[in-house]
Amino acid sequence: MTTTHLIEQIHKKQSFLCIGLDVDLNKIPKHLLNEEDPIFAFNKAIIDATHHLCVAYKPNTAFYEAYGIRGWKALEKTINYLNENNPEIYTIADAKRGDIDNTSTMYAKAFFEDLGFDSVTVAPYMGKDSVEPFLAFEDKHTILLALTSNQGAFDFQTKTVNGVELYKQVLETSKSWRNSENLMYVVGATKAEYFADIRKIIPDSFLLVPGVGAQGGNLQEVCKFGMNDSIGLLINSSRGIIYASQGDDFTQAAASKAEELQVQMKEELQRYSS
Ligand SMILES: O=C(O)c1cc(=O)[nH]c(=O)n1[C@@H]1O[C@H](COP(=O)(O)O)[C@@H](O)[C@H]1O
After folding, report:
1. DSSP calls for 170-202
2. Minimum-distance ligand 1 atom for the alpha carbon of 187
3. pLDDT tens-digit profile of 38-64?
4. Is the CB of 190 under 6 A from ligand 1?
């Protein structure tokens, strides 16, 4: 999906919500465990109940890999279900990959060609030749980790090298990579005070912003400093939506949590368009 199409969907749905499909069999309603494929059954129910409120879904591959072959099959069924039934939805494989070039190419093929995701998250630590193989897929987006939501972000990302913070060097340097117009960046919602500086370096790029909900990030603060003329934000919540209830009402509870965020997003869109 192109960025133009994504922006159209944001305006149409008055939402820049991304729902994280981080499925943990210990947290889903017990009755689903009797299904042939409980992970897919859960995802299908969540997608059917929430797709009108969000523009993107982000399965984190860890939650599928943890269940071996049946997890990977459930991931494949989930992306196929989305692509067939909700082609207007933007899809993110949250896999945080990146390796030497020929290996990165195989990772890119796995998520873009075999599974058919619109984008994949990639770690920048191995540099240009580890990221460009993802960018070689010109009709896809590569979402580079810039400033992550966790405490460990301060271990390396905010450290200065030659007087400039490492995450700023990632942003600046990546702009010179081949097909860099297809880059998006991960910036944690818990780091709202950094968004103004980040926007000085990458004013136009889309940011994937996890960390509202369970991690305590603030949506309004992120919008204040992170929104640009094309909105430029995809704000993710996983646990806060999909585990809103573990009872029979789990789909209604998830939809109601998603709607709470969508209503706040609509207010922000109106505020910044006026
Ligand atoms: O790349 C990510 O999506 C990501 C980056 C980051 O800095 N922090 C972060 O929480 N994430 C992911 O975003 C999701 C957040 O989930 P919740 O905290 O449950 O909303 C998880 O899948 C994380 O792996």
Report:
1. HHHHHTTSTTGGGEEEEE-GGGGGGHHHHHHH-
2. 7
3. 999 999 999 999 999 999 999 999 999
4. no
